[in-house]
Design a protein that fits this description.
Helix content is 40%, strand content 17%. The protein has 281 residues and is α/β, with parallel strands linked by helices. It has a seven-stranded mixed beta sheet, with helices on both faces. Strand 1 (82-86), helix 4 (93-96) and strand 2 (104-109) form a beta-alpha-beta unit.
Amino acid sequence: MAVSPITNVSDTARWVAVYRAWESARSDALFRDPYAQRLAGPRGEEIARLMPRQARSGWPLIARTRLIDDRVAEAIRDGCDCVVNLAAGLDARPYRLELPSALRWVEVDLAALSDEKERLLADARPRCRLVRIKADLTDDRARASALVEALGSARRALAISEGLLVYLADVQVRALSADLLAQPALYSWVLDLAAPELLRMMNRTMGPHLANAPMRFAPADGVAFFEALGWRVEQAEPLLQAAARFGRVPWFLRLFAKFPPPDPRRLGNARWSAVVTLLRA
């Protein structure tokens, strides 16, 4: 039996940083993250090396990063004055994106990972007003308190939950949604979402490698899950089609990328994932 290279969910942040570093090294990079290699460290490189061959290119994560970068830029053009990054992990957007200096960017994550990030980026300067709140987002009281602190002074705020929901249970996603909607300044939520069949495939392929960070959340009704909670879908951009547009899809998937994506409310047996932008209904 394969030994999991990931000891906990926080290790996935190191793994994802490796793909950002690889993409940044390309001459035609979709984004530039000069801090990714430092943040990934030897541990991230080890995790990426031990992953199954099918997961080593990281094209879905690269496409996801670029799409969320674009959503942030659009939100700022639309008057967003605060971005709240939930389970921010080792994300470096406050340091690498072109951001207004007055923008308030709030990162919420576990204390240990936040402390590690502060140490690794001690000599880097964020391009906006960066605040870190150390909280466990699976703790109802801590999450609600963190969101009040993060959004209290905002007028028009965007929440990001990149790579978070898939590790939560259905009831935890519902609770997070309710806490976000309880904040009047929060007008939009950007998240990534997978279909159940894709999750089953990933668990078959990568199950032993993710034994300590199991993927759980993938509603069969897709974006309708969030519509029932009080959100309106502004955009649901499938990662496969986005990656094809960016020139990052492996050759054996290029034909599939030409087919129309499934209805995001009726996912059936689709192997689908997307970056979804929600607005308060």
